[in-house]
Design goal:
The complex is a heterodimer of chains A (101) and B (595). Chain A has 101 residues and is an all-alpha fold. Chain A has 5 helices and no strands. The longest helix of chain A is centred in the N-terminal third of the chain and has 14 residues. In chain B, helix 2 crosses helix 3. The chains are: A mainly alpha (101), B alpha/beta (595). Chains A and B meet through helix 1, helix 2 and helix 4 of A and helix 8, helix 10, helix 13 and strand 20 of B.
Chain lengths: 101, 595
């Protein structure tokens, strides 16, 4: 019997916990946006990418390496689109620093 | 109640560099060894270590372990134990050569020897001039190391339990450690791993701060488990902050960028490091650069709408140099800061990077506690190595490339000590206590039944912000005092976290709640230890510790040359002396730390 979707997604989601913070940040936002809409093709593509070592995956996601597989290219594009530049809202209460004021 | 028990000679928790090195020692000795790990071994955070591993091979120029030892003690601001530091520095060459034999692809020079490069704080002839001591495999040293160690473990039949979350230490009424309780993430089954030796190699807890270079897995699981089992945590006030994390993201920009000519600028475009470190400027040591950056920000010269970061400027460099030598930096700038570093400045802030303290051990990786007059009495059956442990070789501040060395040397020594103990003393498994898994089940049950509780994510962020504000790069007496109260309040919220998803299969919400149980122990230990230490030393710098002839740079050796021990029970602190006597050479005497 095929594994329940909930189980498969749970496993994929956990396997997005990576060695590199760069990838953690991307996947965190990826799941927030696509978590509810991932289909079987997405699952397969994501599974293939997650089996890679972190630096290889980062090279693909950051665009320093290319691949030919259209499914994977599409998934990489979606992950890349999750790049969120400096978020001023997140920093707005100056919590980085223990200023005395 | 009935539950599954799996018996091994040894169980290692964590499959980063320290865990794999320890497991290798155990399995090669013929012991039945299990390694439990949250993520696949080669996705452990050791992967992120780029700089190299320190060893005085002397391949490029004269070097020796005694100089390395001196540098490490000086770097530690004399808080490191000199016996453990001598041991580590003397073992370094062998550790690197062993790794080479395991297939580690070190960079080489023309004559075939391992290439070595200079790194901050590593000097020749007792601090005279920089020396080439770091052995590296391009910028993927940690990654290559993990692969070499993992493959070697496979050959010797180490049994891996991947995607298992360790929950609690099993400690009996005599205080002996008999294994660990763990949960299979795929099924939520809770299993007792019954072992003659238990080795924690669970890594650091860098996620305790809001701005952190650490991957999400670094949640201090070993420290939380040890604290709940009554083991104190040592020197937890000491955290290294890396000067250049991308503001808003934490992603690390390597020191190599400044090595290639990168310059730090304030909002006015001023190269401010010229004022703080006229000689080394942007290449001064990490703690000096971090504090200078924060001084700029705190005095209103920060950049951005909230004046809360500074700039890293690469725009004057040849674009070809950046694209060729620092390709990932260009990408990181674009993707996480939204800037093209060829044309624009990168916003950066000092960011939590490494935990110097941890589970107290001796140089054999044996976890030690105070017992009567013995301040370092080994806990039978319990060992720790790597960032989760405090041997203590990094003291108040770690030198770059000493972390990979630490995990190799103490991974091996803890494995060796466990093998010796099992061979000589522990002939059979001591029976598990009847309540071996009760505490873990109670925690899981509480989580499953909690109503009207606190949100895990919100509580974690609150903890991280509290830590960042009250126990950050600079420590202020008043903020630390308030921080203690605040973090104890957060701890109350952590005790009543609630999850909506109660499913049993890969329930990441449950895992994150369990991880928060561990992080909060680290947060309490850090805040309380930092509030109590009324001096400046290494990474712990207070506003009320003044520079006087008796206390240079605020360091008070007369009163504070001692290790902190935080006990979870009652948030009690006690102290033990620093081991100033090395194994075979003269003590490296106290002096002011200047570079």
């Amino acid at each position: 019997m095929p594994e329940d979707r909930h189980v498969r997604l749970g496993r994929l989601r956990w396997q997005c916990r990576r060695a590199l913070l760069e990838l953690d940040l991307l996947f965190e936002r990826f799941w927030q946006r696509y978590g509810d809409t991932i289909d079987l093709q997405d699952e397969a593509a994501l599974g293939q990418l997650l089996a890679l070592d972190d630096y290889d995956l980062w090279a693909l996601v950051s665009g320093t390496q290319k691949i030919d597989d259209p499914q994977l290219i599409q998934m990489i594009e979606r992950i890349r689109n999750e790049f969120v530049p400096l978020d001023h809202e997140r920093m707005s209460d100056n919590f980085y620093f223990n200023a005395t004021t | 109640m009935t539950y599954t028990v799996r018996k091994f000679d040894a169980v290692v928790v964590g499959a980063g560099g320290a865990g794999l090195r320890a497991a290798l020692q155990l399995s090669e000795s013929g012991l039945k060894t299990a390694v439990l790990t949250k993520v696949f071994p080669t996705r452990s955070h050791t992967v992120a270590a780029q700089g190299g591993v320190a060893a005085s091979l002397g391949n490029s120029e004269e070097d020796n372990w005694h100089w390395h030892m001196y540098d490490t003690i000086k770097g530690s601001d004399w808080l490191g134990d000199q016996d453990a530091i001598e041991f580590m520095c003397r073992q370094a060459n062998q550790a690197v050569v062993e790794l080479e034999h395991y297939g580690m692809p070190f960079d080489r020079v023309d004559n075939g020897k391992i290439y070595q490069r200079p790194f901050g704080g590593h000097m020749s002839n007792f601090g005279e001039k920089p020396v080439r001591r770091s052995c590296a495999a391009a910028d993927r040293t940690g990654h290559a190391m993990l692969h070499a160690l993992y493959q070697r473990n496979i050959k010797v039949n180490t049994q891996f339990f991947v995607e298992w979350q360790a929950l609690d230490l099993i400690r009996d009424a005599d205080g002996e450690v008999l294994g660990v309780v763990a949960m299979d993430m795929e099924t939520s089954e809770v299993v007792a791993f019954h072992a003659k030796a238990t080795i924690f190699a669970t890594g650091g807890a860098g996620r305790v701060y809001y701005s952190s270079t650490n991957a999400f897995i670094n949640t201090g699981d070993g420290l939380g488990m040890a604290a709940r089992a009554g083991i104190p945590l040592e020197d937890m006030e000491f955290w290294q902050f890396h000067p250049t994390g991308v503001a808003g993201a934490g992603v690390l920009i390597t020191e190599g960028v400044r090595g290639e000519g990168g310059i730090l600028r304030n909002a006015d475009g001023e190269r401010f490091m010229e004022r703080y470190a006229p000689n080394a400027k942007d290449l001064a040591s990490r703690d000096v650069v971090s504090r200078s950056m924060l001084t700029e920000i705190n005095e209103g010269r920060g950049a951005g709408p909230y004046k809360d970061y500074v700039y890293l400027d690469l725009t004057h460099l040849d674009p070809q140099v950046i694209l060729k030598r620092l390709p990932s930096i260009h990408e990181i700038g674009i993707q996480f800061a939204g800037v093209d570093c060829l044309k624009e400045y990168i916003p950066v802030v000092p960011t939590c990077h490494y935990q110097m303290g941890g589970i107290p051990t001796n140089r054999f990786g044996q976890v030690v506690v105070t017992k009567g007059n013995d301040l370092s009495s080994p806990v039978p059956g319990f060992y720790a190595a790597g960032e989760c442990a405090c041997a203590s070789v990094h003291g108040a501040n770690r030198l770059g490339t000493n972390s990979l060395l630490d995990l190799l040397v103490f991974g091996k020594s803890s494995g060796e000590a466990a093998v010796a103990s099992i061979r000589e003393n522990v002939k059979a498994h001591k029976p598990l206590p009847v309540d071996a898994i009760e505490k873990s089940l109670a925690r899981l049950d509480r989580l499953n039944t909690q109503k009207g509780g606190s949100n895990v994510h919100e509580t974690r962020v609150l903890m991280q912000r509290t830590m960042q504000k009250h126990a950050g790069v600079f420590r202020f007496s008043q903020l630390l005092k308030e921080g203690v109260d605040k973090i104890l309040e957060v701890a109350q919220a952590v005790a009543r976290t609630e999850i909506q998803d109660k499913s049993k299969v890969f329930n990441t919400a449950r895992i994150e709640a369990l991880e928060l149980d561990n992080l909060i122990e680290v947060a309490k230990a850090t805040m309380i230890s930092a509030e109590a230490r009324k001096e400046s030393r290494g990474a712990h710098v207070r506003d009320d510790a003044h520079d006087t002839p008796e206390t240079p740079d605020g360091r008070d050796d007369q009163n504070w040359l001692k290790h902190t021990l935080w006990h979870r029970d009652g948030n009690r602190l006690d102290y033990k002396p620093v081991q100033m006597k090395p194994l075979s050479v003269a003590t490296i005497e106290l002096k002011k730390r200047t570079y």
